[in-house]
């Protein structure tokens, strides 16, 4: 168990056997023996290994192993297999904490995720995705207004949302099923912490599209394009787009798109695309505006203040709920949150909030 954990931690940190050995002060052969289980590192070495890999030493002794089934990446070609394996280990680490926490409750505090009933069994054209998205919103009672906090919405529906630290620009998102040792499964969606909120929200909606559209798309329909279409329609429904922009437009103002971006959490580029998809502007107008948009350099970074990033809050809330119900101790709560006890005490008494307020 510990040997496999050491290997996972090393890969997640992007370290070779030799590099980890150098940081810990042993040979690469010793690290290899630790990982194979033929030699057990003493507690002093475990502490050094944890520090070198940027984790807490408790990670090596965690009993709740999780397997990531059918991982599907949204990435650039530069994000290769080695990077993918390292990222999967980071995601599994975060999921294991959630699974361990859920196990402390007598009954599961979260819903089991299920696609809405009554959705069409087959999608034969992109036009159908518009109505499909509206059906999903209607079934989940989301209305046609902006979804202010997409992460909270998805977590309330039973999805495990993971925001993972990943330096590479090549990674955007991931969908997978997490399976525990006792056979329980949880659908998960993961996004990178480095992207602005509108990029994260679009990726989350895109990943939701994969979960809902899987097995429904007719032959010849590109799944990635279908999920992109679903993401835009889910974040900005056609009813809202038409109401806010009007039926037919000869052009759009950048200020309009900027304001709508911050109201709906969908990028300016996304709104420009939605105006075209909803038939409010012609292909010629869309192409002309897109060329100007690109010429301004906005494809790399849109102007003005970014949309706030997504922050999953359910896990932290459940940790404190478990603490209040005496399902976990203070030390276990701090371990699950990955913070030192001193900071945990301050956070629990809201002292850190008081310090921020008075700065």
Task: Describe the protein in words.
By secondary structure, the chain is α+β, with helices and mostly antiparallel strands. Among the domains are: 61 residues, Orthogonal Bundle (434 Repressor (Amino-terminal Domain)); 44 residues, no CATH class. The protein has 17 helices and four strands. The chain has a four-stranded mixed sheet with strand order 1-3-4-2, sandwiched between helices. Strand 3 and strand 4 form a beta hairpin. The longest helix has 23 residues. The mean pLDDT is 91.
Q: What is the top-level CATH class of one domain? A: Mainly Alpha
Give the end-to-end Cα distance, rounded to a whole number of Å: 46 Å
The CATH architecture of one domain can be named as: Orthogonal Bundle
The profile of the biggest β sheet is: 4 strands, mixed
How many distinct helices?
17
């Amino acid at each position: 168990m510990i040997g496999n954990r050491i290997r996972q931690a090393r890969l997640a940190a992007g370290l070779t056997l030799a590099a980890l050995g150098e940081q810990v002060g042993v040979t690469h052969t010793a690290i290899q023996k630790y990982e194979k289980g033929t030699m057990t590192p003493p507690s002093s070495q475990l502490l050094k290994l944890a520090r070198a890999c940027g984790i807490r030493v408790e990670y090596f002794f965690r009993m709740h192993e999780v397997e990531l089934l059918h991982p599907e990446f949204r990435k650039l070609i530069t994000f290769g297999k080695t990077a993918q394996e390292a990222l999967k280990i980071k995601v599994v680490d975060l999921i294991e904490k959630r699974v361990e926490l859920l196990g402390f409750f007598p009954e599961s505090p979260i819903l089991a995720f299920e696609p809405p009933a009554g959705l069409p069994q087959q999608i034969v054209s992109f036009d159908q995705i518009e109505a499909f998205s509206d059906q999903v919103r209607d079934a989940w009672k989301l209305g046609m207004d902006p979804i202010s906090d997409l992460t909270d919405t998805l977590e309330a529906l039973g999805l495990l949302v993971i925001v993972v630290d990943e330096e590479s620009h090549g990674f955007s998102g991931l969908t997978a099923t997490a399976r525990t040792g006792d056979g329980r499964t949880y659908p998960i969606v993961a996004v990178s912490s480095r992207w602005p909120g509108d990029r994260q929200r679009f990726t989350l909606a895109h990943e939701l599209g994969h979960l809902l559209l899987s097995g429904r798309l007719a032959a010849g329909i590109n799944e990635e394009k279908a999920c992109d279409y679903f993401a835009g329609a889910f974040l900005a429904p056609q009813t809202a787009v038409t109401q806010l922009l009007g039926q037919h437009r000869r052009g759009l103002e950048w200020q309009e798109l900027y304001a709508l971006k911050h109201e709906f959490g969908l990028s300016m580029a996304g709104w420009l695309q939605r105006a075209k998809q909803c038939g409010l502007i012609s292909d010629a107008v869309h192409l002309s505006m897109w060329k100007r948009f690109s010429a301004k350099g906005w494809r790399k970074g849109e102007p003005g203040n970014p949309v706030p990033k997504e922050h999953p809050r359910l896990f932290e809330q459940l940790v404190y709920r478990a603490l209040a119900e005496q399902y976990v101790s203070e030390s276990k709560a701090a371990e699950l949150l990955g913070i030192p006890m001193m900071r945990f005490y301050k956070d629990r008494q809201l002292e850190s909030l008081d310090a921020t307020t008075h700065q």
